[in-house]
Amino acid sequence: MVESPDIPILQYVYKKGIKFFELVAEPVRQELLPGLFINGWGYNGNIPGPTIQAYPGDYVSFRVINKLPESTSIHWHGLDLPNIMDGVPDVEPSPKIEPGHYFDYHFKIINPPGTHMYHSHFNSIVQQMMGLGGGLIILEPYPNHIQRDYFIMLGEFALKGLEKGEVKPGVYEIDPKSDMFNFFTMNGRCFPFQTPVEVAYGENVRIRLTNHMMDAHPIHIHGHQFCVSGSDGNPIPYYNRLRRNTILVASGEAWDIEFTANNPGIWPFHCHIPHHMANNFSEKTGGMFTTIIYKME
């Protein structure tokens, strides 16, 4: 199974060969740093929403309940499915979900194992930037060489009511139409409030990265080189894999990277844009930043 630090795994009920999931789009008060909250929009009380895991060949049904003050939808980003289930009501036969109503998205998973995401595709400039997104992982149904498998969704928010450099407890509103972002997150939290990525010496580690928001983020690992093993949910053959230590994760992209934990320590794993490595331009390290920590055996 895939671990998504600080994000729950979405549970399901299995009936008559179908996996039934439920997602509730609703206002969410999310804690970015201790005592510092945002009023955003998310799924099932979380930003990002809970991580979905399924297998190739699964028949799935997602009941999406709308508790937002406006209509919404969900787009299953990168999945091959019927047009009516794709979740873009402005241009497709897929319906918008009115406040207080629900819609059941149902389809068969026909994509290969890989990393995907889901997000709103209605009034996207507001709803996506308020936090309406989450991860969707198609799992490998057979044993593989990976011992630790992590999912990380990148995020960014323009918080109102703070002076530049100011980081103090409180509850803040998001300006979804601003591109002056001042807080950057991994799995909905800013460093050092995140749960680190834990590994043990000798393990083969996969980290899955997705981004449904606006900025592109060059994600860099310290102390290791990695191979790029997946792109937008599609596996990359071994003979075509690039060996790197930085990968640009643009809006709409999903990347899988793999490395061997062979250099013990506490290593940074972060966006390399300087402004994104701080909380509201403050001096201390923060923002879109986490650590890879070797466990003591």
UniProtKB/TrEMBL annotation:
<protein>
    <submittedName>
        <fullName>Copper oxidase</fullName>
    </submittedName>
</protein>
<feature type="domain" description="Plastocyanin-like">
    <location>
        <begin position="180"/>
        <end position="281"/>
    </location>
</feature>
<dbReference type="GO" id="GO:0016491">
    <property type="term" value="F:oxidoreductase activity"/>
</dbReference>
<dbReference type="InterPro" id="IPR011706">
    <property type="entry name" value="Cu-oxidase_C"/>
</dbReference>
<feature type="domain" description="Plastocyanin-like">
    <location>
        <begin position="40"/>
        <end position="140"/>
    </location>
</feature>
<dbReference type="Pfam" id="PF07732">
    <property type="entry name" value="Cu-oxidase_3"/>
</dbReference>
<dbReference type="InterPro" id="IPR045087">
    <property type="entry name" value="Cu-oxidase_fam"/>
</dbReference>
<dbReference type="InterPro" id="IPR008972">
    <property type="entry name" value="Cupredoxin"/>
</dbReference>
<dbReference type="Pfam" id="PF07731">
    <property type="entry name" value="Cu-oxidase_2"/>
</dbReference>
<dbReference type="InterPro" id="IPR011707">
    <property type="entry name" value="Cu-oxidase-like_N"/>
</dbReference>
<dbReference type="GO" id="GO:0005507">
    <property type="term" value="F:copper ion binding"/>
</dbReference>
